[in-house]
């Protein structure tokens, strides 16, 4: 076999996804006493290797592709599932796919699926609902740059009586952000919105009325 053909075969092998290579890569981030779980320390090193901050939204999209169950952890099964799907078995390959992962957020259906996934991914598994600090952090990550009323809603949550957000409220917040005008003119008080969002609308209207009075 000629050198060029041997070289070409090695290049092809390097480009093709290799499950064994992917698993060896996974082991770089796990501890000897728990080789099947990549934990917080391993996650930090993984993020450093691929050049992404742990709190970057692309990490949420990657976790979604793996269908990871718990924030800060990847199991061996989740890692292989997600990276087999992405055909990534090295740092350079996952780096080349980061733009693809970010682009999923631009598709409404994918974004909705990622948003819904984020609720169960981020909440404490011992609780049915998501604690408010976690909810605010996840809402900032997912809606902070895209929802014109996000800052108002965040301020509302800070002064509200709510300590947790349930899944129905979580899903309706996204729907509200997509459908309700910034001036609230198309908000139907008789609609099937959760009480939390009715209260937000009342609070925002009252604040706007007060601001208008103060300015006159």
TrEMBL record:
Matching InterPro entries: DCN-prot (IPR014764), DCN1-like_PONY (IPR042460), PONY_dom (IPR005176)
Residue ranges constituting the DCUN1 domain according to the UniProt record: 17-205
Parts forming coiled coils: none
Pfam families according to UniProt: Cullin_binding
Superkingdom field: Eukaryota
Function recorded in the entry: Neddylation of cullins play an essential role in the regulation of SCF-type complexes activity.
PANTHER family linked: DEFECTIVE IN CULLIN NEDDYLATION PROTEIN, RP42 RELATED
Protein name: Defective in cullin neddylation protein
Lineage: Eukaryota, Metazoa, Ecdysozoa, Arthropoda, Hexapoda
């Amino acid at each position: 076999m000629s050198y060029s053909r041997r070289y070409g075969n090695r290049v092809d092998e390097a480009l093709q996804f290799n499950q064994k290579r992917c698993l060896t890569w996974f082991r770089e981030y796990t501890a000897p006493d728990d080789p099947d779980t990549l934990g917080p320390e391993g996650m930090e090193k993984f993020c450093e290797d691929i050049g992404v901050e742990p709190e970057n939204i692309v990490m949420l999209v990657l976790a979604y592709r793996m269908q990871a169950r718990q924030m800060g952890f990847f199991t061996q099964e989740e890692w292989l599932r997600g990276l087999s799907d992405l055909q990534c078995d090295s740092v350079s390959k996952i780096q080349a796919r980061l733009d693809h992962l970010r682009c999923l957020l631009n598709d409404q259906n994918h974004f909705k699926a990622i948003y819904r996934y984020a609720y169960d991914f981020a909440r404490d598994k011992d609780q049915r609902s998501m604690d408010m600090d976690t909810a605010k952090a996840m809402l900032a990550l997912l809606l902070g740059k895209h929802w014109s009323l996000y800052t108002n809603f965040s301020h509302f949550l800070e002064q509200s009586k709510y300590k947790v957000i349930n899944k129905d409220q979580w899903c309706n917040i996204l729907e509200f952000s997509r459908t309700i005008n910034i001036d609230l003119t198309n908000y139907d008080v008789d609609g099937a919105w959760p009480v939390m969002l009715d209260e937000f609308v009342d609070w925002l209207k009252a604040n706007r009325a007060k601001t208008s009075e103060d300015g006159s």
